[in-house]
Amino acid sequence: MSLRIVVTVKYVPDATGDRHFADDLTVDRDDVDGLLSELDEYAVEQALQIAEGRRDEGGDAEVTVVTIGPEDAKDALRKALSMGADKAIHVEDDDLHGTDVIGTSLVLAKAIEKAGFDLVVSGMASTDGTMGVVPALVAERLGVPQVTLLSEVSVEDGTVKGRRDGDTASEQLQAQLPAVVSVTDQSGEARYPSFKGIMAAKKKPVQSWDLSDLDIEAEEVGLDGAFTKVESAAERPARSAGTIVKDEGEGGKQLAEFLASQKFI
Amino acid sequence: MAEVLVYVDHVDGAVRKPTLELLTLARRIGEPVAVALGNGAADTAATLAEHGAVKVLTHDAPEYAAYLVVPKVDALQAAHEAVAPAAVLVPSSVEGKEIAARLALRIGSGIITDAVDLEAGDEGGPVATQSVFAASFTTKSRVVKGTPVITVKPNSAAVEAAPAAGAVEGLSVTFSAQATGTQVTGRTPRESTGRPELTEAAIVVSGGRGVNGAENFAIIEALADQLGAAVGASRAAVDAGWYPHTNQVGQTGKSVSPQLYIANGISGAIQHRAGMQTSKTIVAVNKDAEAPIFELVDYGVVGDLFDVVPQLTEEIKTRKG
Questions:
Q1: Which one, A261, B29, B92, B227, has least CB within 10 Å?
Q2: Is B271 annotated as a binding residue?
Q3: Any idea where the Electron transfer flavoprotein alpha/beta-subunit N-terminal domain is (chain A) (predicted)?
């Protein structure tokens, strides 16, 4: 049987650009370039490695990438396809605008179920919202184990194993498939798409689903369906210019003087 | 007065500082009822009472250590049913956020993560302040459906003593079918460096590309030790293998918000700024006068960190006498 791996990815505003809020206090996606969330590249990489390992052992595997977002979000799918994913699913619907994390997990879980899966692989967090809770929410919705925040992951004989480095301890985890995995940026450098990969990606199938394809009502998602409301967003005032001195032999002492004046020493 | 559930982060009964901060914030919106789980749960009661917990719900079972996250969600859900709180507050650790999210989904509530402040709202329900887009924006948000579930970042409030009853009550928990889904087959406690935990530290001293080698981190550590600080590292330093990933500050590492952040040999790329920009006072030492980190600083020294940092360390030592 083919191992069905679904990778959830997100198209995010470039962090090096000037990110803003739109008038309705959702993220302004028009004024800044988007790209595949860097942390999702690690998820794609691990999914590809698991699939390649499976094929090396004479088995079969298929990697499907799924994203939610407007037309542009296809760029994130193309990037994942050019890295080596087999096919892609794009969930797009005008009613999705402003969907919060609870709604996002609903749409992803429905899409993953419809696609069919043995293993879901996600990045540890998106680089825009940075909440890091979608994998846990998707696992809760799918009713399968969450094996999250892994810096090492492997799949063998229907079992996923991994290492989770927490604040106070490093843990070895294990669960039976089907399961939801998320990986950190320590899981392994993500590959660059090759020219061949980029050309091949153009021919790979990208399916488009809307809310009706997933049996989701418009009221369950979007700004109106959101469980949270952003009431205000204010640009942080520019820090008042600090004191900058050039070290001419006394830089350390001057800095000590500043720290003393601020009562740190 | 409405009760507010506070999830207790503790290690074998020793309560971690972010939980004490949560108790302070919880008192702004109601009466804190703490939930302590696992080995040593009951030992947390005295500390929690000292900081305002009117009640401490405890439960210990092998499941909390043997399986990931879900047993704790089951317990918090049981506490939610028992108390019907006005809000549920959880420390913003990686595990805390996952617990909070699954709880929110189960009880039909919204979730806000990484709040940096919390206040009682006019329209009912707490208002959470968050710092987003690499701390370039400050937002205020509310949960508008269900019981607000909010995770709060460390260093978001000062710990205040506020003695309360802290009556210990056993919590009755029935584990769900999912509870045993993910086994913890091994656990290696992090070796203590004797320094404060990075995300909780009041002072963080960080090193970046300019430190130029693992062995040179000794001078960063020496400064940190003089200040009682945690040591951080930029991604460049971590990727080069000079310092462990657990100490990485930035978008893909840890986010810190100390009283004082000292960046040494760190240029200040947006990814690093995302992890430290909410620090109260920022200091940088860098050879490059054009480094973007200088746009953030309260005090900056343009100079070679190999001259400036040891001199600073010596000067602090002298001043401390």
A1: A261
A2: yes
A3: 24-218
